Amino acid sequence: MSTDIIRSSAAEIADALARREVSSVEVTSAHLDRIAAVDGDVHAFLHVDAEGALAAARAVDDRRAAGEELHVMAGVPIAVKDVMATKGLPTTCGSKILEGWIPPYDATLVSRLRAAGMPILGKTNMDEFAMGSSTEHSAYGPTRNPWDLERIPGGSGGGSSAAVAAFEAPLAIGTDTGGSIRQPAAVTGTVGTKPTYGGVSRYGLVALASSLDQAGPCSRTVLDAALLHSVIGGHDPMDSTSIDAPAPPVVEAARRGDVKGMRIGVVKELGGEGYQPGVRARFEESVQLLVDAGAEVVEVSCPSFDFALAAYYLILPSEASSNLAKFDAMRYGLRVLPEGVDDPSAEQVMAATRDAGFGDEVKRRIILGTYALSSGYYDAYYGQAQKVRTLISRDFSAAFDKVDVLVSPTAPTTAFRLGEKLDDPMAMYLNDIATIPANLAGVPGMSLPSGVAEEDGLPTGIQILAPATEDARLYRVGAVLEKLLVDQWGGPLLATAPELTAKGA
Amino acid sequence: MSTATTEPVLSYDEALEKFDPVMGLEVHVELNTKTKMFCGCATEFGAEPNTQVCPVCLGLPGALPVVNEKAVESAIRIGLALNCEIAEWCRFARKNYFYPDMPKNFQTSQYDEPIAFNGWLDVEIPAASGDGTEVFRVEIERAHMEEDTGKSLHVGGSTGRIHGAEYSLVDYNRAGIPLIEIVTKPLRGAGERAPEVAKAYVATLRDLLRALHVSDVRMEQGSLRCDANLSLRAKAADGQAQDDVPLGTRTETKNVNSLRSVERAVRYEICRQAAILDGGDKVTQETRHWHEDTGVTTSGREKSDAEDYRYFPEPDLVPVAPARETVDELRTTLPEPPAQRRKRLQADWGYSDLEMRDVVNAGAVELIELSVEAGATPAGARKWWTGELARRANAEGKGVDEFGVTPEHVAELDRTVKDGRLNDSMARQVLDGVIAGEGSPVEVADARGLELVQDDDALEAAVDKVIEANPDVAEKVRSGKVQAAGALIGQVMKEMKGQADAGKARQIILSRLGVG
């Protein structure tokens, strides 16, 4: 029974709960059991809150028993990336500098999950402060890809995607600054959406790069992503950059799933050289399926995308260098006293703490950003990068004048081996080459499984991009493609993933 | 208090003979909005430390700012009152530097896109001729919005400064209080009047801000803070325009927390810098601290060009783009311009030019207006604020409003004199009591038993006794030398232990001696 529950989609669980075929306590317990069984290998979680999750589940069951009208997702458990502030639950952002910090408040998104009655299973692993594409930069050890435990689950949100792929949670919250929802989804055979910038409140999301960060859903199906998207989306007065408009009708779009007469653009710059053969083959097959379903496919050129990575690695470190300044040992988190200094000053304690508390990748980006913002360099670096950003937005506008959505492979490769790119930051950064333009322009993007690459048997992903606030289009196209692919595969892609052996079970 | 050694100074006259001072004044005004600049926390002054804080103003991970619309309105009104242009579109920026009292280690401020810019404020100073006033136009560079920092308390050590302290405590109640920074363009051409102009500017600005009701403008509480930048340049050679002489190196003097200090600090820096330049040395560009007690400035941190705040537009906030209709609407809420207001009040109150000048110099226009509103006579209000209180203020180096005496107190005091309950000397004693914190004038008078004796029998008896004891003087008065009655009145007052109405005593004396 419990195996069935954990392999069900969130939509199926929600239906079963509504029909009272199963209780939230049963569903939550089944997932907690699964976490206990496999997370020793996968290490998707940094913190599991069994007690809190079961209490929330019990409360939902009681309310349901009392005949209360509940949210459609009430009782469906969820995992939350450790970058979201959760009242009473540790929030480390994968960093030693926040070890032991327990936020006194909930992120808006977390409040919405709680209000919907979704039990929070725990906090998922991530690259330190979301800097990375492999989750190897977590100060608490890497997460492993459920498809192959020697491989990376993507990043920064490898924990969230791996948790979903390993059936430890039906849903998870991710955050995407340059692809941290979509690239992990692609390499773990799951679904992930980066909503339009401002579509989901950032209040309580510990900022990496404020102008790029966006939280969104991680799931195993397009409909599940839509259901979660609609729980967390919508205006929040606590976030000035939140869009003051009703959330887009993503659930309806996912249920409708129709591409007849839609114009779909294949981005010329995102594909070809540097993309693994299996990734390209699955992408081309997916595009053909969309054509078969009645879409018109054209090639679109976005020439400025070639400069996206360079611009991104100026804007992101610049904002991060400022956002991460608050971690100074004065008010919360780690405090390290400098060695060999009697009576150290506040500045010396700040320096010693930041030296001990931040990992190499974080320091690398703080130094890059500090440099890029320095007077005399600002115009050449940050200023220039902002201009490129404008050009990328214009490329998107021009493209969306011609087509309804754009598509590309999500990541150039399948999951690489742990340690393979750890000493080569550029190679690591290049993994986000296809996902970064959407963050720079603020447009929404989704990754869904397109199959497995024959050369390594690992999952590949296709990315769909839509104009700002037109998130519903992602779900319309994604749902059609998902159905056609699943029919072709004879079942969900994850059913073909190797079985994880339950340790100690 | 100050451990600094005294630096050499030139006499003021000599300094001005050789050099031309150029000033730049930066005034920080804490707005009196109910909530902070970027969150909903209260802004009340003097609350228990760290009780008016939340995730936003504590800079907790994940928290985000939201702009206080009331603060933007106040900023626009200040800009308009300073004859500034109001930006159609402007942004906040982050000013990055590490300091324990700054929760995020950046200050959310405005950098190259201030909400208001290019304005002016006319200030009046007494004319050099000693007759009337002259107007000095202070050009305003910009007025921008920012948030205040927390407040550090350095415990232990002797200086109260961070160096040598045993430990430091931080109160974040002040962190995030809305501030408007008003920056003047370089003030040239004030010459020897520079210190007076500086003081008059801050006083005029304070009156204007008070009239706008946007701030408590209490310098002693830090809700109005002034930094004075000063540099000296050589006097122009014959045939050369003074403004063709390049500007000298400036210092920025902080901790100037009263009107009187503004004047004194500028004057001191002129004399100090003049001594350096006169000795052939260079002025160091630095921040200096004003010491009210010793009347000198001492070196703070060096402010080199290397200081780099790495400003960039605040990505957590959206641009502020006030609609032109909103700006026009706010324009209609502006108070009367100060100069016009002063003319109107002078006419209403019936003051001479000289009297009005004293009132302005004492910074008492608003106080008298409030006193009159509270029921004082204009003459009475002026007498107390520019007489007794201004005298004390000068003696103690304070502002007239720094004694705890309110306009209501003055109105009450004036009323008790007018009603004949107190005479002038008794009223002065009552004022002592009010300043000592003993309560309102009536409460002080009650507690100290100060009251004119209204018992006519006692007064008549005292008069009879004094006439009998001074037959010679009495005879003089009888023979028509009425002014000699003064001596008798003094005796009577003494007899009555000061608690008599001198006017009434005079009346009785004259009628007894047949000249009334």
TrEMBL record, chain A:
SUPFAM superfamilies referenced in this protein's UniProt entry, alphabetically: Amidase signature (AS) enzymes
Catalysed reactions, as listed in the record: L-glutamyl-tRNA(Gln) + L-glutamine + ATP + H2O = L-glutaminyl-tRNA(Gln) + L-glutamate + ADP + phosphate + H(+)
Residue span, Amidase domain: 26-474
UniProtKB keywords: ATP-binding, Ligase, Nucleotide-binding, Protein biosynthesis, Transferase
Active site positions, chain numbering: 81, 156, 180
GO molecular function: ATP binding; glutaminyl-tRNA synthase (glutamine-hydrolyzing) activity; transferase activity
Function: Allows the formation of correctly charged Gln-tRNA(Gln) through the transamidation of misacylated Glu-tRNA(Gln) in organisms which lack glutaminyl-tRNA synthetase. The reaction takes place in the presence of glutamine and ATP through an activated gamma-phospho-Glu-tRNA(Gln).
Domain of life, per lineage: Bacteria
Gene Ontology CC annotation, any one: glutamyl-tRNA(Gln) amidotransferase complex
Quaternary context: Heterotrimer of A, B and C subunits.
Name of the protein: Glutamyl-tRNA(Gln) amidotransferase subunit A
EC number: 6.3.5.7
PROSITE patterns named in the record: AMIDASES
Family: Belongs to the amidase family. GatA subfamily.
UniProtKB/TrEMBL annotation, chain B:
InterPro entries the record matches: Asn/Gln-tRNA_amidoTrfase_suB/E, Asn/Gln-tRNA_Trfase_suB/E_cat, Asn/Gln_amidotransferase, Asn/Gln_tRNA_amidoTrase-B-like, GatB, GatB_Yqey_C_2, Gln-tRNA_amidoTrfase_suB_CS, Gln_synth/guanido_kin_cat_dom
Subunit and interaction comment: Heterotrimer of A, B and C subunits.
Signal peptide: none
Entry protein name: Aspartyl/glutamyl-tRNA(Asn/Gln) amidotransferase subunit B
GO MF annotation, one: transferase activity
Record EC number: 6.3.5.-
GO biological process terms, semicolon-separated: glutaminyl-tRNAGln biosynthesis via transamidation; translation
Stated role: Allows the formation of correctly charged Asn-tRNA(Asn) or Gln-tRNA(Gln) through the transamidation of misacylated Asp-tRNA(Asn) or Glu-tRNA(Gln) in organisms which lack either or both of asparaginyl-tRNA or glutaminyl-tRNA synthetases. The reaction takes place in the presence of glutamine and ATP through an activated phospho-Asp-tRNA(Asn) or phospho-Glu-tRNA(Gln).
SUPFAM superfamilies, A to Z: GatB/YqeY motif, Glutamine synthetase/guanido kinase
Underlying gene: gatB
PANTHER family with a match to the protein in the record: GLUTAMYL-TRNA GLN AMIDOTRANSFERASE SUBUNIT B MITOCHONDRIAL AND PROKARYOTIC PET112-RELATED, GLUTAMYL-TRNA(GLN) AMIDOTRANSFERASE SUBUNIT B, MITOCHONDRIAL
Domain Asn/Gln amidotransferase, residue spans: 366-513
Organism: Pedococcus cremeus
